[in-house]
Specification:
single chain, 713 residues, alpha+beta, Arc Repressor Mutant, subunit A, OB fold (Dihydrolipoamide Acetyltransferase, E2P), 6 domains, five-stranded antiparallel β-sheet, 27% strand
Length: 713
C-alpha cells in the first residue's frame, strides 16, 4: 500500500469517527465505549486514539473533564481565525457556517494573537443587525508569525509598527532585532502574547529591505499575506518533461476544431489566453457559439506536486506590479495558453442559441483548436462599436464574424436583464507604474462592448455547463450567490430613500428589483455611490459542492468553467467533466469526490478572499504613494461614504480619501445617520452621499494607508 492509499484510509476512518460523534443519536461517551461500539480491533486502537486526538486538536470534537467525547457545535463551540484589533478586542471568522464574524470583547480574547486558529464559544447570539458575541476557549494553532511592519529603533530595544493596523506594535529586544534599523521593513514573529497591559514581544525573522527601496512596499504586502512566490522544486521537476508543442498522439479521442475560425480576445497586456471563441450562423438562423477553454488538467494531473501546489494557491493573484500565478509560467504562458497559429488542447462547450438567447442545444467535449488570431478588447471595440476603417482592414477576415458576435452579445445581455440579472459595472482601478515601481497614473480600467461581449459568452457557457452537470447528478463545484439578508435590504432601502429611490417587495427580494434600481440611477450623479451601497448589501459569492443558484445573475445554475489557468475550481470541474466524458464516473470516484469537494470548494473561497484583500492592499498603497506627490492640489470628486468620523470622497481616478469632521471647521456639523448626511447648524449647508465635492489633498500616511482631504468652497 503506497503513502497516498494509507492517507486516504486514515482520512476515511477520521470521517467515520467524526460522523459517528455528529450523529443525532450519539450520547456523550468515553473513548473506550466509542471504540467498542465502533468495533475497533485491538490492532487499530492506537490509530483510533491518534485520530480522536487529531479531531480534538482541530476543534471538531471536545473531551470533557469527565473524559466524555462530544461534538463541538453541540456545546456552542466553533473553529475559526481570530482577527485582532489594536484596541484589544477582535473578531473570529468562522471556518464555515456563518455569514458574519463573531465579536470577541477584549476581556474574552484570552491571550489570542491576530490570525491564530481558535475554538470560540458563542455567548450571545446575533440579533437585530448585531454580530454574535463570543469568547476564545482554546488556541488550536498559532499563526505562522508572518507579521510585517516597519522597525523603529529605541535605546536598547525596538518596536515593529505593523502594516496591518489591527495588530498593535510589537516590542523587540535589541538582541532579537537581527540588525534592523529605523525604517527597515521586517517580518516579526510574536514570542510572547500581550499580558497585563504590556505589548506583545517578538523576534525579527527577516529584513525585507528599507522602506524607501524600490519594490519593498509590494514585497511587504506579499509577506504580510503570506503569498507563495516560488514553486517547490518537485513542481519544476514535474514540468521539465512537458513539451512546448501538442503531440499527434495527444489528439486521440478529441473533436478536431482546428479548421473552425477561432479567436482569442483579451487585454492589450495579457500574456496567457485560457479562452477562445468561435461563431457560425446555422441554416435555421440560430447562432452556433463555441467557447474553447485550455485543457490544463491534461498537464496538471490529479494528486501530482503541480496539482497540490495549485490547490494550495487556489488562484492567481494579480498585484499592481506583478502576477503571482497559480501554475508556473511555462504552462500558463506556454502549452496551456491558446496562442495564435498553434494547436492547443481544449475543453469546448459548443452551444446552439436562438434569437431569444435560449441555449436550445449544446455539446461539451474534449477538443483541439488552432487559434486564428490574437485580438484585443480595444481593437475589437473599434470594429463593433465604431466600424473604424483602419481596424476593420486589420481584422478584415474576421469582421463579419465579429459583427455577428456583437448581435449575439446584445441578445444575451437583453435576456439576462429581462430575467433580472444585476449588472454591477464598477470601474476597476488601473495603476500605471514606471520601472522603479513609482506611480505614473491612476485611472479606471476601460470597459467597452468588446469586454462585455466576452463576458456574455463566458456567462452563458458557465451556466450551460453547470446545468448540464447538475442534472447528471455528479459531484461538482458550483459558484453560488445567496439571496441577501432581509436586514441588509431594509438598511439599503433606508439609505436610497434619501436619494428619492425605492425598492419594491417585502421579505425575500428578487434580483430584478435590484436591476431596476440600477437602471433608474444609470447616468445620474449618484449612480456610482448607490451602486456601491447595493453591492455592500449583497452576500459574497462562494464555491460550494451543492448548487444553490446565483442571486446576482438570477441564474438557477452557475459554475466557473472558463479560467482553469488562474482558478482552481475551474481546473477541478474540468477533471470531473473529462472523467464523465471518458465513460462515466464510477461509484468509488463519486464517493471520493463527494468527500473531498466540500473542503476544496471552501479552500478556494478562502484563497479567493485572500487574493482580493492583497490586491486591494497594494492598490491602496500605490494610491497613497501617488497622492503624496499631489499635496495641496485640488480635485473634483463625489461623496462616496458618510460616517460618524467624516466623509469619504472618491475621485474620477477611483482614488478615495477622507474629509475628517475635525477639518470641517466653517460651521458646527451634526451627523444624521439615517439620512447619511452632515448638516451645518448655522448655515444649513448639507453634505450627503452622492454630492459632487471639490477637495484639496492635505495629508497622506503611508503607514496607515490613508489620504486626507478638506472641502474647498
Amino acid at each position: 500500500m503506497d503513502i497516498m492509499d494509507i492517507d486516504e484510509l486514515r482520512q476515511e476512518r477520521k470521517d467515520k469517527i467524526l460522523a459517528f460523534v455528529k450523529d443525532e443519536t450519539f450520547p456523550p461517551m468515553k473513548r473506550k465505549e466509542m471504540s467498542l461500539l465502533m468495533e475497533v480491533l485491538p490492532s487499530e486502537r492506537a490509530e483510533f486514539e491518534s485520530i480522536v486526538d487529531e479531531l480534538i486538536a482541530e476543534g471538531k470534537i471536545v473531551e470533557t473533564k469527565k473524559g466524555k467525547i462530544m461534538e463541538s457545535e453541540k456545546l456552542g463551540l466553533f473553529t475559526g481565525e481570530f482577527i485582532g484589533h489594536q484596541k484589544g478586542f477582535g473578531f473570529v471568522r468562522l471556518d464555515e457556517g456563518a455569514e458574519s464574524d463573531i465579536f470577541i470583547p477584549a476581556s474574552s480574547v484570552n491571550g489570542t494573537m491576530h490570525k491564530d486558529k481558535v475554538l470560540v464559544r458563542i455567548t450571545s447570539p446575533a440579533e437585530m443587525g448585531r454580530r454574535a458575541e463570543g469568547e476564545i476557549v482554546k488556541i488550536l494553532e498559532k499563526s505562522t508569525g508572518n507579521i510585517v511592519g516597519t522597525f523603529q529603533q529605541g535605546k536598547g530595544f525596538g518596536f515593529v509598527v505593523c502594516d496591518d493596523r489591527k495588530i498593535e506594535d510589537i516590542f523587540v529586544p535589541k538582541e532579537k532585532s537581527k540588525g534592523a534599523v529605523t525604517g527597515s521593513k521586517v517580518v516579526v514573529k510574536v514570542t510572547k502574547a500581550r499580558e497585563n497591559g504590556r505589548s506583545p514581544e517578538g523576534i525579527i525573522t527577516e529584513i525585507i529591505g528599507h522602506i524607501d527601496d524600490p519594490g519593498v512596499d509590494i514585497l511587504s504586502v506579499i509577506k504580510q499575506f503570506d503569498l507563495p512566490i516560488e514553486f517547490p522544486d518537485e513542481v519544476f521537476e514535474q514540468i521539465e518533461g512537458i513539451g512546448l508543442d501538442v503531440k499527434e498522439e495527444e489528439l486521440q479521442g478529441r473533436t478536431d476544431f482546428r479548421k473552425m475560425v477561432t479567436v482569442t480576445i483579451d487585454g492589450d497586456d495579457s500574456k496567457d489566453f485560457d479562452d477562445a471563441v468561435s461563431l457560425e450562423m446555422m441554416p435555421n438562423g440560430n447562432y452556433k457559439l463555441g467557447v474553447h477553454i485550455a485543457d490544463v488538467t491534461h498537464y496538471v494531473t490529479e494528486g501530482s506536486p503541480l496539482d497540490e501546489e495549485a490547490l494550495e494557491r487556489g488562484t492567481s493573484v494579480y498585484l499592481v506590479d506583478r502576477v503571482i500565478p497559480m501554475i508556473p509560467h511555462k504552462l500558463s504562458n506556454g502549452i496551456c495558453s491558446l496562442n495564435p497559429d498553434e494547436d492547443r488542447l481544449t475543453l469546448s462547450c459548443v452551444m446552439e442559441i436562438n434569437r431569444n438567447g435560449d441555449v436550445v442545444d449544446h455539446e461539451i467535449c474534449k477538443s483541439v483548436i488552432h487559434s486564428h488570431c490574437r485580438m484585443t478588447y480595444s481593437k475589437v471595440n473599434k470594429v463593433i462599436e465604431f466600424q473604424d476603417a483602419e481596424q476593420c482592414e486589420e481584422y478584415k477576415d474576421f469582421v463579419p464574424m465579429l459583427m455577428q458576435m456583437n448581435e449575439l452579445r446584445i441578445i444575451l445581455n437583453n435576456k439576462r436583464k429581462k430575467r433580472g440579472s444585476v449588472n454591477f459595472d464598477f470601474p476597476e482601478t488601473k495603476i500605471v507604474l514606471d520601472g522603479d515601481g513609482n506611480v505614473l497614473d491612476i485611472k479606471p480600467y476601460e470597459r467597452n462592448l468588446a469586454t462585455n461581449l466576452i463576458e456574455e459568452f463566458m456567462l452563458v457557457c458557465n451556466e450551460t455547463v453547470a446545468e448540464d452537470y447538475y442534472w447528471q447528478s455528479v459531484p461538482f463545484v458550483y459558484r453560488n450567490h445567496e439571496t441577501p439578508d432581509e436586514e441588509k435590504i431594509e438598511s439599503l432601502k433606508l439609505m436610497i430613500k434619501s436619494f428619492g429611490y425605492y425598492i419594491k417587495g417585502q421579505n425575500e427580494i428578487h434580483p430584478k428589483e435590484i436591476q431596476q434600481l440600477i437602471d433608474r440611477i444609470s447616468g445620474k450623479d449618484e449612480e456610482h455611490v448607490i451602486s456601491r451601497l447595493v453591492l455592500r448589501s449583497m452576500k459574497q459569492a462562494k464555491y460550494q459542492s451543492e448548487n444553490y443558484g446565483h442571486f446576482g445573475l438570477a441564474a438557477q445554475y452557475y459554475c466557473h468553467f472558463t479560467s482553469p489557468i488562474r482558478r482552481y475550481p475551474d481546473l477541478q470541474i474540468h477533471r470531473i467533466i473529462k472523467e464523465c466524458l471518458d465513460g462515466g464516473m464510477r461509484d468509488e470516484r463519486r464517493k471520493k469526490y463527494s468527500k473531498k469537494l466540500p473542503a476544496i470548494a471552501n479552500r478556494c473561497s478562502i484563497r479567493e478572499r485572500l487574493a482580493d484583500d492583497a490586491e486591494r492592499e497594494t492598490n491602496k498603497l500605490k494610491m497613497v504613494q501617488y497622492m503624496s506627490e499631489h499635496i495641496g492640489e485640488e480635485f473634483e470628486g463625489i461623496i462616496s461614504g458618510v460616517t460618524s468620523w467624516g466623509l469619504y470622497v472618491e475621485l474620477p481616478s477611483t482614488v478615495e480619501g477622507m474629509v475628517s469632521i475635525n477639518n470641517m471647521d466653517d460651521d458646527y456639523y451634526t451627523y444624521e445617520e439615517k439620512k447619511l448626511l452632515y448638516r451645518g447648524e448655522r448655515s444649513g449647508r448639507v453634505y450627503k452621499m452622492g454630492d459632487k465635492a471639490r477637495v484639496q489633498v492635505i495629508k497622506t500616511d503611508m503607514q496607515l494607508r490613508t489620504i486626507d482631504f478638506v472641502f474647498v468652497d
